[in-house]
Sequence to fold (226 residues):
Amino acid sequence: AQRVTQPEKLLSVFKGAPVELKCNYSYSGSPELFWYVQYSRQRLQLLLRHISRESIKGFTADLNKGETSFHLKKPFAQEEDSAMYYCAPFFYGGSQGNLIFGKGTKLSVKP
Amino acid sequence: NAGVTQTPKFQVLKTGQSMTLQCAQDMNHNSMYWYRQDPGMGLRLIYYSASEGTTDKGEVPNGYNVSRLNKREFSLRLESAAPSQTSVYFCASTPGPFRANYGYTFGSGTRLTVV
Fold:
């Protein structure tokens, strides 16, 4: 079964500290992988996608196929990074692919 | 450039009442989706429409119906609202069912409370 796990509900760090938000998935194939971010009471926004290997707002994510993980990292957290982060693999299947969201990790960056 | 527009933004219903949540996109996207967001549960897919004229159930379809009115509009209907349907509802769209690399564009959400 397709499944995505974000083990931490809440992650609290101080400004300037490194951040790693964990994401693990289970899938027999190779999904497309995304991270979405939701700032307080705003709509979800695409943060980054693994296929483009981009860095957005200082965040990066590396796909580890062996561990089936796609952890989100930032070397120095900023207060404006406080938000809800969702890992979202896109699974292909049959006539339709679907984006499956993890339960999310709330990142709180303290001054 | 509006993107994905949802109406209303807030709604309070009494148990048993019905209502329709509206969603429209102006990006010429083929695929549209309805999600609900609950604390500790993340986003769960209710229904989706891969293309105009098709709709399919997602993970949590019970108690909901959808209509893909045309390429732009995808509505979600609650026929008899229940307190368990208190949630924030998000509509999303993407260029096509397999165009995941473009990402999903989300609306701003409808906060629904059923009392």
